[in-house]
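Working notes for the structural subgroup meeting. M.R. asked for a predicted model of this chain before we commit to crystallization trials. I am recording the input and output together here so anyone reviewing the notebook later can reproduce the run.

Input as submitted:
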Amino acid sequence: MKITVADVEHVARLARLELTPGEKELFAGQMGAILGYVEKLKELDTEGIVPTSHAVPMENSFREDIARPSIGLEKALANAPSRAGSFFVVPNVIE
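Returned structure, recorded in token form:
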């Protein structure tokens, strides 16, 4: 599939990009090369190949969700620069 400068202009307009005439020509060639490569990949026989989402096997590395006691209020607030009772004091962000 041949990508034209008009195709590049259309995609640039959708992406709200302003391109120079040189960039339009460059990107038309580059996009054409990418689509040409994809067309070449379509020639491969993929019958019997299982689709994968990762190139290497992946395992869940999450730990089990086990309830544990919290660190406690005093430890949580120990390094607070400022506190009011059992709360962190933070600067106002909305006036």
